[in-house]
Design brief:
alpha+beta; six-stranded antiparallel β-sheet; two-stranded antiparallel ribbon; 8 strands; globular
């Protein structure tokens, strides 16, 4: 399970340090792709394989299924961290997420997300008033 929030900067070559705590769960090679809300999703290999299998079972005859699979899979890139823990984020993914320099890397249960720092702050700012309402609708805390 991935948790936590980490602030980092891209270097001149478009690399970012993946926090060691998250790298341990991601393994040697992992997949970065376009995520929802204009962030990047990062999956460990085994989780990516399960997701591939699940999404590939969607009927290709349905327009929405084809559109989502194109969006999601065409952006996917297998990456690995170098000895310093840096990961190269391809330019097309940085462009999609609006990442220029400052990034936030967050653990979100089964995946890691990479956000442009300002975009994440804006996202949380816009959603802040709704978290209680969302929790009430979606989460049963009486475990």
């Amino acid at each position: 399970m991935f948790t936590g929030e980490f602030q980092h900067s891209l270097d001149a070559k478009g690399r970012v340090i993946m926090p060691s705590r998250l790298r341990e769960g991601l393994g040697e090679k992992f997949v970065v792709t376009r995520g929802l809300d204009h962030c990047l999703f990062v999956y460990p290999g085994n989780q990516w394989t399960r997701l591939e299998q699940k999404l590939s079972q969607q009927p290709f005859t349905k327009k929405d299924s084809r559109a989502f699979n194109r969006f999601f899979f065409s952006g996917a890139m297998e990456v690995e961290a170098d000895k310093q823990g840096r990961v190269l984020i391809p330019q097309y993914l940085r462009d999609y997420a609006g990442i220029e320099k400052e990034v936030m890397i967050i653990g979100v249960a089964d995946r890691v997300e990479i956000w442009d720092e300002a975009s994440l702050k804006e996202y949380f700012g816009n959603a802040d008033d709704n978290f209680e309402e969302l929790a009430e609708k979606l989460v049963d805390f009486d475990l």
